[in-house]
Amino acid sequence: MKIPITKPVFDDAEKKNIIKPLDSGWVVQGKFVAKFEKLFTLFTGARYAFAVTSCTTALHLALAALKIKPGDKVIVPSFTFVATVNAVEYTGAEPVFCDIDLKTFNIDMGQLETILMKDKGHKIKAVIPVHLFGLCAEMEKIVKIAGKYHLKIVEDAACALGSKIGNIHAGVFGDAGCFSFHPRKVITTGEGGMVITNNPALAQRLTSLRDHGASKTDLQRHTAKGGSLLPDYDLLGYNYRLTDLQGALGVCQMAKAKAIINKRRIRAGKYNQVLQEERNIITPWVPDNYTHTYQSYVCLFTNGESRERVINYTPDKINKLNKTRNRIMFALEDKGIAVRQGTHAVHTLGYYKNKYGLRSQDCFASYIADRLSIALPLYAEMTTKEFNWVVQVLKNALKKYAA
Question: CATH classification of 12-253, choosing from 1.20.1440.230, 3.40.640.10, 1.10.8.60, 3.30.360.10?
Fold first, then answer.
């Protein structure tokens, strides 16, 4: 039995809808993208939404629209996909790595404020909280801290469609929120992303910068009087437009989003139930009043120890546990079950480590999460047979290799 790490949900609706742009001849950003954006605002509660080519370009676009530039610094959690930090590099600004809370895998609030208190030159202009794996960062606290230090907030909500604190959706707490539609995410358009904001002035810059810096979109130019004249270009922009083929997929995926999220949450709840007695791994933790959408179901392998004890381990001891973690993951792979480490500790990756002279222990909780996290298969259409097989093989591997 082959079990993927995740699987998108497609049916005849996508097959029928994707033909419509082909039949119309309008395959660039057009009416389907516009409808996708409208549905996204209704789902998230944001005033404005702009579809782009990926969450990476969404992050870059948001930072550019907020006028982050060379000489500035931007705080990012180290435990995240490398794209979060790459987007900062694209602007010429310098990323400042912040450690995470090992309990949530999200940015550590104590270290965030410590970093800001040490910023004597006031070069830190923004923070990018990441809602990792579908759990929101502590946005109320982050908003308060950002106000105190006059920071812009760009939420990396790549994993967080449907994620909330109370009734407030991820991405609408800060100046902008950025989402991904990669196939591993809750909904997908193949590649693709979205930027949301409630700020009209920022929205105007986003729509222009997305389209080469043009003063009006292709759709506006082709549907309004005077379309024979080219628009003005007052900004240095980018070509980050989503195609209408992808927009057609997005429209269909939005119709399924709530159902997909509900099914993922139910399956994650089953994992929580059957794995709660496994002393060697710690299952995801969710604070009260938070909605976790489990873009990934990520456990922490601790070999029976608490997070509090593991955080005080030496790097050598973490590396020893890492070898056992890897054996467990390989055991699942050998049975046809796809697993992954949660994500990177970006400060340990070659480019950033070498450029900024960083060490593993600089963000040690991120390093631990990199070395000891395990993402298990999770998708909306996962069958009971598939689920039971994953659990059985995992338990056998833990019994064989863990202490």
Answer: 3.40.640.10
